[in-house]
Specification:
Layout (H helix, E strand, L loop, with lengths): L10 H19 L5 H39 L5
Helix pairs in contact: 1-2
Pfam families: DUF2164
InterPro entries: DUF2164
Organism: Clostridium saccharobutylicum DSM 13864
């Protein structure tokens, strides 16, 4: 994933995430956000932060696969 790749969400996923943002701000900060403000926050997260989450997922997968390969080698018969 390079910086020009953008996470693509379905309409339903986007609506669910916007709803989650609105609920978070209401419950944690006692602020009522509208759809536009919540949408802007979601866009910021996708544009500025998602690459870090993606890269962490890739690294975690790499570590898991490395451990799995080491486990596979342990069943060799001599």
């Amino acid at each position: 994933m390079n910086k020009n790749d953008k996470i693509k969400l379905t309409k339903e996923q986007r609506e669910d995430m916007i709803s989650e943002i609105k609920e978070y701000f209401y419950n944690e900060r006692d602020e009522e956000l509208g759809d536009l403000a919540s949408s802007k926050i979601l866009d910021f997260i996708i544009d500025k932060l998602s690459l870090e989450f993606y890269n962490q997922g890739v690294y975690d997968s790499y570590q898991y696969m490395t451990r799995s390969i080491d486990d596979l080698l342990s069943i060799q018969k001599f």
